[in-house]
Amino acid sequence: MIFLLCSNLSSLYVIIIIIITTYLTAFTLGLTHSSQWSEHFPDCAGSSQSPVDVVTSLTKYDPSLTPMTPLGYSQHNHQPFTLLNSGHTVMVSLPGWMGLGGLPWLFSAVQLHLHWGSGGPSHGGSEHTIDGLSSEAELHIVHYNSELFPNVSAAMRQKNGLAVLGILIEAGDETNPGFNNIIRYLSRVRHAEQEDLIPGFDISSLLPKDLGRYYRYNGSLTTPPCYQEVIWTVFYEKVKISKAQVRQIS
Ligand SMILES: [Zn+2]
User: What region holds the Alpha-carbonic anhydrase domain (predicted)?
Assistant: First the structure.
């Protein structure tokens, strides 16, 4: 099931997507095809795997959903963040006092990371697709259920343990200053396992303006170990970065 929450000044409506297409992006751990993942990680063969293709004509209204509320995203207090090249993505560690409201439990931030590809409207680098079309890239902000679990390790195998925000990124004409807080430092972590401190910045500058319209479904981590305990929120509004910025992350 996928739910879409939409809100504006006068109305609140939510749509459920009943039929979804599941596929996986193949990379990491030396396994070149997702079909191999399940040999080592049984969850990767599960029935609730992410990412998905959102078929908008099959979405349905769910009045129980509420807008997402970032908590402390802007209170970086000039503390530096750690930027890490994990070998298959670029990741920024986030402090646990950043969190996420708008879900039945309070979730604490863990990290954010980017997915990207070769570009093009149908061959982009996003993991989620909308009606079969991908975007240039996708940002994931990972949180764990800190009301029920003591840390992310304990949460990631438990029901409702994780909540991930998915932000689809497309190319535009203007430089996105929020994303430059990451992109300008990518040259420091060109190689796997490299990490460096970067200046703290307002994480909400990476989000779309409209946090009240999104697709909601229960899915999984998109790479091994593929645990199927993720509450996914993929925002309807895409974020634009400049073509030059796209080139820098591609
Ligand atoms: Zn991801």
Answer: 25-250
Catalytic residues: 88
Domain CATH code at residue 187: 3.10.200.10
Give the list of residues 6+ apart from residue 113 with CB closer than 8 angstroms, or none: 86, 89, 90, 91, 92, 139, 140, 142
Of 88, 151, 80, give the one whose Cα is nearest residue 114: 88
Residue 12 forms part of a structural domain: yes
Chain-centroid distance, C-alpha 242 = 20
Q: Which residues constitute the domain of residue 58?
A: 2-68+78-249
Residue 123 lies in a domain: yes
Residue type, 19: I
> Which pLDDT value is given to residue 129?
92
CB of 119 closer than 8 Å to CB of 125 = yes
pLDDT value, residue 11: 33
Ligand 1 centre from 91 Cα, in Å?
9
Model confidence pLDDT, tens digit, residues 53-100: 899 999 888 899 999 999 999 987 778 999 999 988 899 999 999 999
CA of 194 to the centre of ligand 1 (A): 19
Structurally, how many domains does the chain consist of?
Answer: 1
Instruction: Look over the chain and give the mean of its residue pLDDT values, rounded to a whole number.
Output: 83
Residue identified by tokens 């910045």 is 201
Cα(222) to centroid of ligand 1, in Å? 6
pLDDT band with cut points at 50, 70 and 90 for residue 20: very low
CB 165 within 8 A of CB 127: no
Compute the distance from residue 90 Cα to the ligand 1 centre, in Å.
10
pTM of this structure: 0.85
Express each pLDDT in 175-202 by its tens digit.
Answer: 999 999 999 999 999 999 999 999 999 9
